[in-house]
Structures are given as structure tokens and as C-alpha cells.
Amino acid sequence: MNTKEALLFVLEEQRGMYVSGEELAKRLGVSRTAVWKAVNSLREDGFDIVSAGSRGYRLSAESDLLSSAAVQQALKTRVFDVRVVPETGSTNDDVKALAERGAPEFTVVASELQTKGKGRLGRSFYSPQRTGIYFSVLLRPKLPVTDALFITTSAAVATASAIEGVCGRQAGIKWVNDIYWQDRKVCGILTEASLDLENGSLAYAVLGIGINVSPPEGGFPEELKAIAGCLYPEGGCPAGTRSRLLASLLDKFYELYVHLPEKRFLDEYRRRSILKGLNVNVIQGDRTYPASVVGIDDQCHLLVSRDGQLIALDSGEVSVRPIK
Ligand code: BTN
């Protein structure tokens, strides 16, 4: 940790309370001038740090930037190395680059803004500044490729459960990995994997999650208006929510991930499924057919009934739209 990160860590720990320059210098093992410089640099990054003469400095209780310090403090699991950047193209691409350079499992990159956020099936993911959480986690699972889908489905459960715990929203899962609240998509998940062709397993996987927390300035773009929503549609998201949500999600995901072959997430995945019993249109490539949803099997395939025939849909090739 450099001086700036260490300073933010202490201020975050005492959020809303003053810490004297002298104490900060002592705790960080640097001069008071170095503290002052780090404070200024954090302010330039957008952190709301108030100073009051001899009382020192405090991080305003309303300061709402995502920070590694805030996430690390809220995390119960100690394995994650969370890096927060103000802006990037895509956190999935950043983590992939880190993976190729040998970064350890559970390296996380989160960003306040993505300029080239990626969605599933080659789509883009709208990631405006400071209104969402956009992050990716590097995983190095010892799993057969056939089980890779469980990374995504367990992440969907962790996300929905964290949203409920931190924001009090009853989130549902639309197969396979979209999170919905009040009939709106509030989160998308994109898992990208690199294969080890020698032994048919995964070399690494990048789990990318984007959550819409507050309404974007000016609203969602026209093409997303009918589908996209956020967790605080009227605004008023309490300061620090995004950091706590990210930490809770990572904690919950870790618990499920380390026991992935046991599929502990499956019951909750089924319970949160919003497609149960619905009539849907199944879209496979350029083919569309009506079907009704029967359930989710142990492989997390969606079971649909079509003209009395039971079909297990594999995640990669279909998307499903409820008939209005
Ligand atoms: C989808 O709904 O199609 C999946 C969206 C996944 C978006 C997240 S945001 C963080 C990570 N970085 C990306 O470029 N995409 C994922």
C-alpha cells in the first residue's frame, strides 16, 4: 500500500470523524507534509476530505467514491485483492491482461466508469460514471470446462443475495444470469474463460459483474429504457452502499465458489428464478419457438416444454423472452 492508499484506509476506518495530522503521520510512518500531499491528491481524485485545523482530517460521511480501502474494510473474506480505478475500457479486459501476466486468483478490478463495457453475445454494457458497480474477478478454478457455467450461476445467486442483504431489494434471477428487480434488469454477468487445451480444463476465468445502482444522469439510453432499471430508481442511495454491496457480493460468492462442485447455490438459484411456470419465446440463433418453463435441472439448464416435449436448454445458445 502506498501513502495515499494507507491514508484512505485510515480515514475510511474512522469515516465521519477527525483524525489529527500528527496521528496520521505516525500511523503511516511518514511526515505531516507527506500526509498533506496525500490528502490533496485524494481530493483531486474526488474524495470529500474535510480539514479543520488542529483536529485534522475527516472523510465526509457523504463521500461516495468506490475505493479499495472501503471495500477491503467491509470484506469478511481476506483473499481478495481489490483494485479500484476511476475509468477503464472494460474491467474484464483488464483482469484478462492481469491473468496473462500471472496475477493470482481473486484479483479484482473495479471501475467507476467503463467506456467499452462488454455484455453477453457481443453486446455492450452501458456503464456510466459512479452510478453502478462494474468489476471483474480473476478465478483459477480446478474445474472441468463442463462445470464452468456454475461460476456464473453461483455468482448470480451471490449477487441477488447481496442485493437483498445490503439494499433490501428482493432480487430475482432470469435464467441464466440476469438479475431482475421490479421487472427490470439491474445487473448483468459476463464470464469469460481461457481454456487449457492440454488437459481440457480452464486456465482461468474472468467473472465480470455490472450492477446498476442509481439512475444515470439523463436516464438510460432509449434502447435500454424498456428493460434496464436500477436499485435506487428515485435516487437517494446511501453513501458507501456500493462498497458494501461489492464486499458482500464477493464474500457470498467466495463461500459458494470454494464448494462449487457441491452446487450449494442450486436451491437458491431455483428459488430466485423469475421464469418459473412462464410462457416464453425461446430464441435460438435465428429460430424462435414458444414454450413453457418447467424448471431448472441440476446442470442449471432451463427445462422447457414444447408441444409436450421436454427440452433442456443449454446456456450458451439461447435467450428467453417472456411473452407479454
Ligand atoms: C450482460 O448482461 O450482457 C453481461 C454484462 C456484464 C457487464 C460487466 S461490467 C464489469 C465487467 N466488464 C465488462 O466489460 N463487462 C462486465
Structure notes:
The protein is α+β, with helices and mostly antiparallel strands. The protein is built from eight helices and 14 strands. The longest helix is centred in the middle third of the chain and has 19 residues, at 149-167. It is elongated. The structure holds biotin (BTN). Residues 90-92, 114, 117-120, 123, 125, 127, 134-136, 178, 188-190, 208-210 line the site of biotin (BTN).
Jot down its keywords.
Arc Repressor Mutant, subunit A; 3 domains; 14 strands; elongated; SH3 type barrels; alpha+beta; 5-stranded antiparallel β-sheet
Structure, briefly:
By secondary structure, this protein is α+β, with helices and mostly antiparallel strands. 28% of the residues lie in helices and 27% in strands.
Detail the topology: elements first, then pairings:
Blueprint: H1 3-13, H2 21-28, H3 32-44, E1 49-52, E2 56-59, H4 68-74, E3 81-85, H5 91-100, E4 107-111, E5 132-139, H6 149-167, E6 172-174, E7 178-181, E8 184-196, E9 201-212, H7 241-257, H8 266-272, E10 279-284, E11 287-296, E12 302-306, E13 309-313, E14 318-322
Parallel strand pairs: 3-4
Antiparallel strand pairs: 1-2, 4-5, 5-9, 6-7, 7-8, 8-9, 10-11, 10-14, 11-12, 12-13
Helix pairs in contact: 1-3, 1-4, 2-3, 4-7, 6-7, 6-8
The structure holds biotin.
